[in-house]
TrEMBL record, chain A:
This is Branched-chain amino acid transport system ATP-binding protein. Belongs to the ABC transporter superfamily. It comes from Ancylobacter polymorphus. It holds the Pfam family ABC_tran. One of its GO terms (molecular function) is ATP binding.
From TrEMBL, chain B:
It is a multi-pass membrane protein. The chain crosses the membrane at residues 12-35, 42-64, 70-92, 104-125, 149-174, 202-221, 241-265, 342-362, 369-392, 398-416, 428-448, 460-480, 509-527, 557-576, 588-619, 631-650. Pfam families: BPD_transp_2 (PF02653). This is Branched-chain amino acid transport system permease protein. Keywords: Cell membrane, Membrane, Transmembrane, Transmembrane helix. The keyword Membrane applies. It is found in: Cell membrane. It comes from the Bacteria.
Amino acid sequence: MSQTAHIVHLTAPTGPADAATPPLLQVENLAVSYGRIRAVDGVNLHVEPGRIVSLVGSNGAGKTTTLMALSGLLPLASGRIRFAGEDITALAPELRVARGIAHVPERRRVFAGMSVRENLVLGAYARGDAVDIASDLERMVALFPRLGERMAQQAGTMSGGEQQMLAIARGLMSRPSLLIMDEPTMGLAPQMIDLILDTVLEIRKQGTTILLVEQNAVEAMRLSDHVYIMRLGRIVHEDSGTNIDPERVKSFYLGADA
Amino acid sequence: MDYLGQLLANGLVLGAIYALAAVAFTLVYGVVRLVNFAFGELFMLGAFLTASLMLPEVRLLGAIVPMPGFSLPVAAAGAIALTAALGVLVDRIAYRPLRNAPRLAPLITSIAVSVVLQSLAQTVWGAEELRFPEFHLATLPPVVLFDSIYLSVMDLVVMATALAAMLGLSAFIARSSLGRAMRASAEDQMAATLVGIPVNRVVAAAFAIGSGFAALAGLLYAQTYGFAHSSMGFLPGLKALTAAVLGGIGSIPGAALGGLILGLVEALGSGYLPNGTAWKDAISFVLLVGLLYLRPQGLLGKPELNSAGRGSLLGGASEFGAGWLRAAFGKLDGGLARAASAGTPAALGLLALALVVGALLPSDYWLRILTLVVIYGMLASGLNVIVGFAGLLDLGFVAFWAVGAYLTSILFVLVLKDQFGVEPATIWWLLYLNLPLAGLLAAGFAVMLGTPTLRLRGDYLAIMTLGFGEIVRVVAINWMDLTNGPMGIRGIPAPNLFGIALGSPRAQFFFALALAVVVVFAIARLVRSYVGRAWVAIREDEEAAEAMGVPTARYKLYAYAASGFVGGFVGVFYAHTQQYISPLNFSLFENILLLMLVVLGGLGTFIGPFVGALIWIVFLQLALDLPFVQAYPETRFALLGIVLIVLMVFRPQGLAASARVALTMPGARPANAKEAA
């Protein structure tokens, strides 16, 4: 385990929760359709700066679809997205990255044929050619020492956990104010899951707001300041991470409560 | 040694040009997985634009236009910039709307773009060759190597330019930020978007660079051979694509290597083989077929490229289009789908309609055209078996058609009439024997061609079958004793039944209709059997089909055989209605035309090929009446190309896509049980 191990105890919500703070991300009445199928319907959510907010729910609940709509990969059927006070509903995906939204996609999707360094450099693409990225590379190595040892290695040859680290680091290279993470622990060994989740806390501590999608609802609740529960394309429940009754979550997952 | 050295030198010059054009194919394929056939035409435009800019005046659209008369380097730079801009425009209009469309759709529009550009060039610059002006370096004495190898200064310039351009591009791709973004987009477009890469702009940049390379290759080619012509891009374009595939498409060093090998092999082949210059085009394609058989991913390519497009030949739809247009297409599609789902009654109704039209239509001229519609509909149905049902993209289908047409023509004319003096009318029955015979021969041929392609997938399969088709055409041109060569075979007798000549257009239309009934019925029976289900399983997901125990190799060969049989069968009738055949009838363009008909009508449908043929051939005739087309006859094909691009952009899944045959087990649904019975 790395230098991030010491923050495991940091589970209580610490984000600034006073109502005066305007939300960093505000989503109103978001709807997304795949052809005739409405995958996300009337989702409202907001993320205050400095917080970790989670979106949990069973398979097919519309979590990934929501995230893809937020970063501009899917067209909206209706709704509005505001980010840092600006309406970004119609903004092209690459411009959203430039505004400060980074999205670490499901299944990592590192550029497998390129080196770790090239992946990281590409992460800073939206910031333009002129920026000095050496300091950012150092920051990433400090966060994930493992990546430092592998700078020249082809990304596709690394283990799943290492690729996840790279995907997160690549996202951070754009110096985002909001980091969106889609199932960062999927398919990883338990030890690696702990490491990744610790890193999530560390990233928040360094000042980046986080919107997280997790299959593992228990871990997500432990980590998050605020949790939204999705079911069949809608948000069915929300509360602060510590207030949510796990039994209630279970019922949402199993579909007993509708 | 002198002779060899000279051949090697020539090969290097040709290879350098092929390599440059191959880079265009490889670069764009690498980023968007599209074989952009239009690069052949951008190659041609590079030559025309350079020549025009170098001359003091040019005849454009029949009028003399003063030109700046630049020197070669300036004119070349101008031509490259203009062609690059055109390439970006083409991407914007014809390809970008199709990024999520079925994979065949952009391939078809790229062919349509070729047709448009070629006929526009012919309209603008005329049908004759434009002499390429001499550059002053060309007047310098040649450089002599080893006392015996003569290289003109321009040859050296060509090689140096090609080398510099390729090294420059490699460095650009490896080092620059845009180059890195290109590689990232090539690997994973979604991830590239998420790190903030404007993927559409990166793709446009790839098109600009690729088009510039094609133009550079074209102008160097024209400079070397001293002329520019509107059709000059076709064969070099195919060779460059071959070179790209040879080297491993997507790899720039591979394109350079492939181009070099191809240039050397062609030069050596035409120098050493008996009658080598005539066969040099076949040599390249034989090399391609042989290499793909041994190493499916090309010399330097990655193996996964060979799995491109799994299950995606037909999937997807347009995300584009005005409301009313979409609604209109939807209605047409719905109507065709209803007709298709009605099964036998609808088929009989259509047949009755065709019979009534055939009986009542007063014009012989239109009857001939409708006969052609039925013939092309049948051929397209044959191609549909392999492309639409089994999902194997076949660009060599014309070869089977040619086998049928040549078999019956050679027997009737060259053997029986010319050798033995037998009057065709006395052996009229031979035609009816030839129909199944040619079908079987072509089917055997198809299996023979199909066997080495079993390891290939997607675009690689398309290129290999294209190679086969070209080999057959080159053989038909050059094997004079067997095929009469480019003169073709004349005097093929019209069909005859019990001594009654079926020479009238009306009789031939009914004859064609009868054959169409046989063809469609046979295909329908086959597709609705377990064989058809296996084909569709392979089309949808080859690995899954294999895992479920479908012997994919065997069923792919069945598909080749069935499609070959139809090709040969129809070819016999085609020869007898046309009464004259030549290798020109069986060009790659015809194959692409058939593919267009199938895609236009709807892949994997029974009615689609005929819908496509009707639209295409009737439009081709109607266009003749437009005053604009009468003033500029060459624009007819440009117009067709534009119509096709519009149809593809708005309706990439084909007009009758919903009529696609639903294959369920007999008994699974009452409606289907009835059809199967």
